[in-house]
Amino acid sequence: MKKNVVIFGSTGSVGTNTFEVIKNDKKNFNVILLSTNSNVKKIISQAKQLNVKNIIINNQQEYLKAKKKYKKLKINIYNKLIEINKILQKNKIYYSMVSISGIEGLEATLLLSKYTKNLAVVNKESIISGWSLIKKNLKKYNTKFLPIDSEHYSIFTLLKEHKIEEIKKIYITASGGPFLNFPKNKFKSIKPKMALKHPNWKMGKKITIDSATLMNKVFEVIEARHIFDVPYRKISILIHPKSYVHAIVEFNNGITKMLMHEPNMKIPIKNSIYQSGANTIKTKSLNFKILNNLNFKNVNKNKFSCTKLLNKLPNFNSLYETVLLTINDFLVHKFLNNEIDFLRLNKLIYKISNSTEFLKYKKIKPNNIDQIYRLKKYVSIKMNYLSV
Question: CA–CA distance from 120 to each of 1, 11, 99, 269, 384 (Å)?
């Protein structure tokens, strides 16, 4: 019997990789729902390839055009995520992937947690801002959570059969981005085109800029804190330019484990779908040249000032994480539009995040999704009035 699958954000990078994994094993899997924001052409193509009967197009204008253009196709086209209540049956589906970008992914994560046995999430914003809400749903609906970012899937794998109390230290690796060896006194000259050239990964613009500032690693540490319930003092960022080792876990018994694989997102995706050693994926042979020169080093916090934000975060899911996400989103957008330079981007993320206006949210836990979305809107409005 085929296992049912849902892919939210199927036209993005991770969503496409997930789609391709399923496409290569059609005899075992059946995709019942896909979603996109506005890439109608691609999602229609995907639906045709796997005979998917339901798609969601979030963009209102694109949805209306698609409803008219593709009315003869035997595909149900919806506009709102909440409409999954009409699509999914009471019997739980096998696997759901949430690869929607942005804090809006929290709604999808919470909705799908009710309907799926295995909830795979690559949307870091939902984990960062609303983990306490997600965790509550996971327990309520008896849903297994699968982190898909290579770092968190590696930690997840390394911690199997281990208790949290056994952990001495978790190291999350970072390539260092395109400016690892670029002098800070030249940061002001960095243009968006330069910052978008990641040395190892092909990603969207926003996350590539986050990699350049190392803000993505700040977010990944927050995710690890939430997912694995480990205090911040036990999590560190380690620079590893080749992105071959994705995580290292040091245990109290003197044993240290590391997980490595080539920078290919299909590896954590496929392993999360099959959850056993039965699946195979074509990869390159073990790279001894990299193994003999792993080149680990500590982060230069003066150069990458965003990493200092981790020093005083509360060891629980607070509303402050939503503040951090919103401030960073706003300023990255400014940088990509050439409204601020790269040096100012780094300085402002740290400075504004430490303003009295926002620090108070460190003491407040999120109660519901509306509270998080209202705060995001409020911070965005405040940012418009700040001199940046």
Answer: 21, 16, 9, 8, 34
Which pLDDT score, from 0 to 100, does residue 73 have? 94
**Identity at 385, one-letter amino acid code:** Y
* Contact (Cβ atoms closer than 8 angstroms) between residue 132 and residue 126: no
DSSP string, 97-148: EE---STTHHHHHHHHTTTEEEEEE--HHHHHHHHHHHHHHHHHHT-EEEE-
* Residue 2 backbone class (left: φ over 0; alpha: ψ -120 to 50; beta: rest): beta
Cross-strand partners of 260: 245
Q: What sign results for the dihedral spanned by CA atoms 26, 29, 31, 32? A: positive
Q: Whole-angstrom Cα distance, residue 98 to residue 127?
A: 11
Would you say 317 and 131 are in contact if contact means Cβ atoms under 8 Å apart? yes
Q: What pLDDT score was predicted for residue 283?
A: 83
CA–CA distance, 177 with 293 (Å, rounded to integer): 18
List, for residues 102-155, the tens digit of each pLDDT value.
Answer: 898 999 999 999 999 999 999 999 999 999 999 999 999 999 999 999 999 999
CA-to-CA distance for 196 and 336, rounded, in angstroms? 9
Question: Which 3 state secondary structure label does DSSP give 245?
Answer: strand
Cα–Cα dist 129/300, whole Å: 27
The pLDDT score that the predictor gives to residue 184 is 92
Contact 322, 129 (CB under 8 A): yes
d(Cα 111, Cα 117) in Å, to the nearest integer? 13
Amino acid letter, residue 7? I
**Quick one: average pLDDT of 272-277?**
83
Q: In the structure encoding, which two tokens stand for residue 236, read together? A: 């560190």
Among 28, 27, 86, which Cα is nearest to 56's? 86
368/298 Cα distance (integer angstroms): 37
